[in-house]
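idk why but the lab printer keeps eating my pages so im just putting this in chat instead. protein + flavin-adenine dinucleotide:
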Amino acid sequence: MSVPEKIKYLIIGNSAGGIGAAEAIREVDKKGTINVISDEPYPAYSRPLISDYLAGDYTVEKMLYRPVDFYEKNSIKTILGDKVIQLDTEKHTVKLESIKPLTYQKLLLATGGSPIIPRIEGNGLQGVFTFNKLDDARSIDEFLNRYTKKIRAVVIGGGLIGASVTEALLKREVKVTIVEMKDRILNTILDEETSAMEAEALVECGVEIITDHTAVSINSYFPGEVSGISLDDGRSIPCDMVVIAVGVQPRLDFIKNSGIKVNRGVIVDRQMQTSVADVYACGDVAEAFDFIYRENRLTPIWPNAYAGGRTAGRNMAGIPDKYPGGTAMNAVKYFGVKIVSAGLVVPPDESYETLREVHDHIYRKIILRDGKLAGMVFAGDIEKSGIVYNLMKDGTDVSSFKEAIISDDFGLTSLPDDIRQAKLATPPDKYISVVTSIEEPEEIVVEE
Amino acid sequence: MVCGNRLPHYFLQEGSMKRVYVNEDVCMGCHLCEIYCQLKHAKSKDLIKAFKKESPRPLPRLRVEEKGVLSLSSRCQHCDDAPCVQACLTGTLTRDPVSRLVTADSERCIGCGTCMLVCPLGALRMDTEHKKMVKCDLCQDEEIPVCVANCPNEALLYMEVPNGNDKLEKKELTQTQ
Ligand SMILES: Cc1cc2nc3c(=O)[nH]c(=O)nc-3n(C[C@H](O)[C@H](O)[C@H](O)COP(=O)(O)OP(=O)(O)OC[C@H]3O[C@@H](n4cnc5c(N)ncnc54)[C@H](O)[C@@H]3O)c2cc1C
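predcted complex ->
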């Protein structure tokens, strides 16, 4: 038997994390073989856009994360629509459902997350959906197209995904009820004030929000079809379809039994390497460094998947690199309400200081820990939120100008000179003189 | 240097790039950079028409800030390892491998604001009318960006991006002149 050729870089997961890694690898290694595997049969697409797809605003083509010729141009081989079922880290092989096993030199686990399905009666009925991938959006679309009557939907879970699907369903003229277990929607990414803003906007659009309750069963009157749900207080809500959006968990299918160290997600070091040599992980499946909690955590958001993928890719290609760390961070715009948040949204105890500015449609809140930013929530005007986020990320002591951060005219000019000038890379005097006279280039001093 | 202190490893491989630098010591906050930027991105190429007739008023791709005697104008610095490119959910933002500019394909933009949340300069603007982000493109069809060309005080400098590599950097600077 011939020994199969070793793939230099094997990437499982063709989404934010996988693409981040592939792009980083190609920047430093133009030739090494890259194979990307996904059980989804599509080129990488923007997962958050499945909502816009369902709403009818976006086509698959417009959702693609990279141009159609991306794989070809970067000599990346794709294996799409096939599933990895087993990993042998000692032999460096992965087994797939339909094709022959593959052998790798470096492996990246960018398998993302899968929806959590609560064990309630009726969760297998027709008309019960999850909302995590393009095919989910397609199934819901097909379902809706079958009816001419007004459809009623219950969305179980009022988080990011619940809100996303609700927005799309409203655009499809579906009547939506959200059932949220906690006391407010979007409770992990927003604080009380901003989640109230979103709730108000939703209610204005005709959405019914039920908080502090859970669904205990999905009911059926005609065999196989959804007729409604029952809540924990005995109430029942009639509906034609249900979307389960109670959360996402790391997709560990074949990873669990591979010997790789797993907590809630795959544990990685700052190089994004797992406990096993030559195996890296990033994105929703990984527990990577969170610079606010200063420990490894799941931060299942797109930008962190991509950034972690880049770090993994560089290290896989032999260029030592350190993951700068990520934290929970979101920009939402449901129903026209623009909100960004990052880090903590609610101070965990009294030792944190909270500053707030509220007027008209503007809301700014920062949470400080020992003079440094530990969290932020901005609504209304978000253009300059990045300055604040980066102060937080850099661990800058902001105590001398903390009040300015939440003021209306906050900007680069509010920052201490040294911080501002470093950000703007204001050319030093010598540099400026170089512009007009370059006789002595040796004297150039460049800020590093 | 700019935006984090990692060496831009792949930076000069595919052509060098220029950046607009701010010399805040000589900026008086006259807003001419902003006005010409707006004009550049207006439908009408006539200053009066662009400002008096166009609705909505064209958006500047830069921002002038003033505080006491301090004033400056800021815009996208086309950072190495640009955080906005990494954070973009849809593939709107990419780095052009040849020009090395951070470019936006507005067709793809959903105006989510994730890029704004990560931009260290707060340099990206929201076009609320079209619900899309807009940003500086360094006036690709001009030799010098209009903000720089129209700055009466040389408070804006358009010059090569210095590189961590000394030799390259000096060579580049010489070439620029
Ligand atoms: C509706 C919705 C809205 C969202 N909105 C936002 C938002 O506004 N902002 C934000 O930051 N994030 C948002 N997210 C989250 C974001 O999409 C994820 O954080 C991101 O997609 C994670 O990327 P990833 O590469 O880690 O994994 P994923 O995108 O989950 O991709 C993993 C891929 O690996 C494949 N795979 C897994 N296991 C196997 C296997 N065994 N064999 C073969 N292939 C496999 C999967 O099929 C999938 O294609 C949203 C998500 C959803 C669903």
